[in-house]
């Protein structure tokens, strides 16, 4: 009788521990799903912020308020930070802007540009100007396409902790 009683008590304890372990596993699963949802929302919010900036840059480029070389550098680097499914292969989708970026990305800018010798600075200016002139119309069209692409995605999302 004592053995039967001990076996029943042991079985009840094991059953209780199993139920508790199942409950803990369910809680971990819920927490993991919640973390994935928060991560997806954070990525979506970050992308929306990026698209807002790209939209502004596209508008400045279309209206001629910014040098196309500087614009191509900024847009290329900003769009490289897009995450998730909206990630863009910029070289394939916007070849002219990408080409100008690859031409001017290693050229000196700002204080580094002022430190260059006059001849070297003029050579860089000439190369930059030739590339901008040659690619101007195509880049403007690409900027219009990019602006239309990012505009509907530019939805600010308010994230609240649950």
TrEMBL record:
<keyword id="KW-0472">Membrane</keyword>
<keyword id="KW-1133">Transmembrane helix</keyword>
<keyword id="KW-0812">Transmembrane</keyword>
<feature type="domain" description="DUF2489">
    <location>
        <begin position="14"/>
        <end position="144"/>
    </location>
</feature>
<dbReference type="InterPro" id="IPR019617">
    <property type="entry name" value="DUF2489"/>
</dbReference>
<protein>
    <submittedName>
        <fullName>DUF2489 domain-containing protein</fullName>
    </submittedName>
</protein>
<dbReference type="Pfam" id="PF10675">
    <property type="entry name" value="DUF2489"/>
</dbReference>
<feature type="transmembrane region" description="Helical">
    <location>
        <begin position="6"/>
        <end position="26"/>
    </location>
</feature>
